[in-house]
Amino acid sequence: MTSEEDMRFMREALLLAKEASYRGEIPIGCVIVRNGDIIAKSGNTREHRQDATGHAEIEAIREACRVTGFWRLNDCDLYVTLEPCLMCAGAMIQARIRRCCFGAYDPKSGMAGSVADVFALPSNHRVAVMGGLMEEECSDLLRNFFTQRREEQKNVLG
Fold first, then answer.
1. Residue 57 annotated among the catalytic residues of the structure
2. Choosing from 57, 63, 135, 137, which is the catalytic residue?
3. Residue 76 backbone dihedrals phi, psi, to 5 degrees
């Protein structure tokens, strides 16, 4: 069941996603919450840093580990605007994230059920997953970003 608190944190992730798009990044935002407080947040940084691991989730997990001084984030929930990819899902499992709430489903590379469900594999830690939180808003942001990008490419190529 979605709580008002879940909505509040996803709205914050959406703001980060919008900020990422203004920087030319794919609009994905992520916040990590512990005891009702946001302890880490990020948007995508891959283009700016030219770093393939610059996904919002990875950046936020790194920040949360710095903030807590520990790599185990088992009392933390992660909110992200797009279903996690394989790399990000693996990082959540390794960091022992308690729960992942995501917005838009990703039929091309989503690893929380769309393409595969990494979180259902037998392992020493299971991340609880809730998908589709503010799905329409998250999907619209991504769709509009890529529509605009295609238009820009068309104008450049003539």
1. yes
2. 57
3. -120, 145
What residue spans define the domains of the chain? 4-157
Helices (H) and strands (E) in the chain, counts: 5, 5
Task: Specify whether the CB–CB gap between 34 and 40 falls below 8 A.
Answer: no
48 with 34: CB under 8 angstroms? no
Are 24 and 47 in contact by the 8 Å Cβ rule? The answer is yes
**What's the pLDDT tens digit per position in 85-137?**
999 999 999 999 999 999 999 999 999 999 999 999 998 899 999 999 999 99
Report the C-alpha gap between 28 and 86 in whole angstroms: 15
DSSP 25: S
d(CA 148, CA 121): 37
Q: pLDDT by residue (tens digit) across 76-95?
A: 999 999 999 999 999 999 99
Q: For 4-157, CATH number?
A: 3.40.140.10
Partnered with residue 112 across adjacent β-strands are 117
Q: Please, are residues 13 and 134 in contact by the beta-carbon 8 Å criterion? A: no
DSSP H or E segment with residue 102: strand 99-104
pTM assigned to the model: 0.94
